[in-house]
């Protein structure tokens, strides 16, 4: 694996057998990509705070019409066997996402001219929850902000369940979840899927939204209610214990009074799961 600054080679439908997943639809998806409409989305790289996009600086995000193509320096391999091993493991973890896997997601190991290759993720271009939140703020639409936060609450609790029961660790952030066409259900669009039963700073992932949108009381009330409903419906006591959730929330540092109040309420909800 390499953090090479070499420009990545775009995926093609002629990649060798075994270098594309899933094989049944992969080549057909690549043939649908409008390579004459390729835009490098450098505006989505190395983002922090309320900005949408990836926080990693080596990520490459390309928009090609209705499709998103992603790779990174760490996904460039000098040895194609290493690249294929990475692709197989990435595909396995994608499958574990179940309904959280974006439709028509394809993984490709695209060989380069130097004997190595790039692992790409191809998926439909979708609106992230962070984009939905930012648009709601721009248009002063607190109702839409509340809807986005409610969906994020359900997504975050779903991530808890995956970690507790399948040892699948997601990066729980509004930029990493996107809306399906029905504008209600959601999928996980980030490639970082770890293995383990603890999600780093998971309490911060929940409580940070209260600090970010502290002046939008109606939206945050909907968000807190959605957290409560999702936790009561999906979390068992064993999940709370496995994930060390009560201690995590107790030790999380918050910045605003509204976040502090939410922290207290969520801890009460978790204790009731016993």
Radius of gyration: 20 Å
Strand content: 15-25%
Number of helices: 9
Strands, total number: 11
Considering DSSP H and I runs of 4 or more, what fraction of the residues is helical?
Answer: 40-55%
- Compute the average pLDDT: 92
Distance between the termini: 45 Å
> What is the general shape?
globular
Order of helices and strands: EHEEEEHEEHHEEEEHHHHH
Q: Structural class given helices, strands, pairing?
A: alpha+beta
Quick one: biggest sheet? 7 strands, antiparallel
Low-confidence stretches: none
Write the layout of secondary structure elements.
Elements: E1 20-21, H1 23-32, E2 38-40, E3 59-64, E4 67-72, E5 76-77, H2 80-96, E6 106-111, E7 117-124, H3 129-138, H4 142-166, E8 168-170, E9 177-179, E10 186-188, E11 193-195, H5 202-212, H6 217-234, H7 237-242, H8 245-250, H9 257-271
Antiparallel strand pairs: 1-6, 2-3, 3-4, 4-7, 5-7, 6-7, 8-11, 9-10
Describe this structure in words.
With 274 residues, the protein is of the alpha+beta class. Helices cover 43% and strands 16% of the residues. It has helices at 23-32, 80-96, 129-138, 142-166, 202-212, 217-234, 237-242, 245-250, 257-271; strands at 20-21, 38-40, 59-64, 67-72, 76-77, 106-111, 117-124, 168-170, 177-179, 186-188, 193-195. The strands form three sheets. Strands 1, 2, 3, 4, 5, 6 and 7 form a seven-stranded antiparallel β-sheet that branches. A two-stranded antiparallel ribbon has the order 8-11. A hairpin with a 5-residue loop joins strand 6 and strand 7 (117-124). Helix 4 (142-166) packs antiparallel against helix 5. The longest helix has 25 residues, at 142-166. It is globular, with a radius of gyration of 20 Å.
């Amino acid at each position: 694996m390499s953090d090479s600054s070499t420009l990545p080679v775009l995926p093609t439908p002629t990649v060798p057998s075994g270098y594309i997943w899933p094989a049944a639809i992969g080549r057909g998806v690549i043939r649908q990509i409008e390579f004459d409409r390729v835009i490098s989305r450098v505006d989505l790289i190395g983002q922090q705070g309320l900005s949408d996009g990836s926080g990693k600086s080596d990520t490459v995000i390309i928009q090609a019409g209705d499709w998103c193509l992603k790779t990174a320096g760490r996904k460039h391999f000098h040895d194609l066997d290493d690249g294929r091993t990475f692709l197989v493991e990435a595909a396995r973890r994608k499958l574990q996402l179940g309904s959280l896997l974006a439709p028509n997601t394809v993984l490709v190991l695209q060989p380069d001219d130097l004997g190595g290759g790039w692992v790409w993720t191809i998926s439909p271009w979708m609106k992230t929850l962070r984009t939905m939140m930012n648009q709601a703020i721009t248009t002063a639409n607190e109702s839409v902000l509340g809807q986005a936060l409610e969906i994020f609450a359900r997504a975050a609790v779903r991530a808890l369940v995956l970690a507790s029961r399948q040892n699948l660790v997601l990066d729980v952030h509004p930029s990493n979840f996107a809306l399906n066409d029905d504008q209600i259900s959601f999928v996980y669009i980030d490639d970082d899927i770890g293995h383990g039963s603890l999600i780093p700073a998971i309490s911060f992932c929940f409580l940070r939204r209260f600090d970010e949108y502290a002046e939008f009381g109606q939206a945050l009330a909907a968000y807190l209610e959605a957290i409560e409903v999702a936790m009561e419906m999906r979390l068992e006591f064993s999940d709370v214990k496995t994930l060390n959730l009560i201690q995590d929330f107790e030790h999380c540092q918050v910045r605003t009074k509204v976040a502090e109040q939410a922290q207290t309420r969520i801890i009460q909800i978790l204790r009731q799961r016993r």
